[in-house]
Design goal:
By secondary structure, the protein is of the alpha+beta class. About 50% of the residues lie in helices and about 15% in strands.
């Protein structure tokens, strides 16, 4: 699947609309419920998404991140009440998605943005996919508080998979063993090579032969696994890991963020 900036922006709009439709009906008590993100309530997840939307809006519209401004923004959002955090998220995300939708075709294709923590500027499609991954996974953190069988929305998964090797490798941790694991996903069907090493792990796309282990699972579950969101009570039936690496080993390699 070749994902373009318009695809990513359209997915952002749909994700925003669906999450906001859910959030706007939550009571104060529900906003205070524990979320799927460790040590965060539902409202605190929304605060994180709202502050990130505010920071992201500045980054997108100016073309350069202001990382020095982030602590002040976080402090302001942390000081809000749960209801203010929820309402603030909805307003901030409207502005951010609107800024993406305001870009013309040339900007969508050629605009470069300096995000401040990568070695070179990125295109709009990369930045929008980063945001889609963030909202999709933290949206799951919210939804799973109300539905233990929640999954990441199907329209998000194929787009985020395009950038998954970079994201997964960045967050992977060493687990004291090495080896090559073949990852095969369904819905959509993808093949990945997970290389466990002394310093962490790397993920590349493509089939793998002569491997130490093999994992078969839905692509949605693979996405959550790499984000530390595939605990035993949130693992769908049919996930299989065979060979000298266990599912718990893979969970340790991706502790989450």
């Amino acid at each position: 699947m070749a994902v373009g900036a318009k695809d990513a922006v359209a997915a952002l709009r749909r994700t925003r609309d669906e999450l906001q439709a859910f959030v706007q009906n939550l009571s104060s008590e529900e906003l205070g419920r524990p979320s799927g993100a460790s040590e965060w309530t539902v409202a605190q997840v929304l605060s994180h998404l709202g502050s990130a939307a505010e920071i992201g809006h500045h980054t997108l519209t100016t073309g350069k991140a202001d990382l020095g401004a982030a602590p002040v923004i976080w402090d302001r959002w942390n000081a809000m009440s749960p209801r203010e955090q929820a309402d603030g998220f909805m307003a901030a995300d409207v502005r951010l998605v609107g800024a993406y939708e305001a870009l013309d075709d040339e900007e969508l294709d050629s605009k470069l943005i300096d995000v401040g923590f990568l070695p070179q500027p990125v295109h709009v499609v990369f930045l929008a996919t980063m945001r889609l991954s963030e909202v999709g996974l933290h949206g799951w953190d919210i939804n799973v508080s109300f539905d233990p069988h929640a999954t990441v929305a199907g329209h998000i998964v194929p787009i985020v998979l395009e950038q998954l090797p970079l994201f997964a490798g960045f967050f992977a941790k060493p687990i004291g063993r090495s080896g090559l694991v073949a990852i095969e996903t369904t819905d959509p069907a993808r093949h990945y090579r997970l290389e466990l090493g002394e310093d962490g792990a790397s993920v590349t796309e493509g089939p793998a032969a002569d491997v130490a282990a093999r994992a078969n699972l839905p692509a949605e579950a693979w996405l959550r696994l790499t984000a530390g969101r595939l605990a035993a009570d949130h693992t769908p039936a049919g996930v299989r890991v065979e060979g000298d690496v266990s599912l718990d080993d893979l969970r340790r390699a991706f502790p989450g963020y």
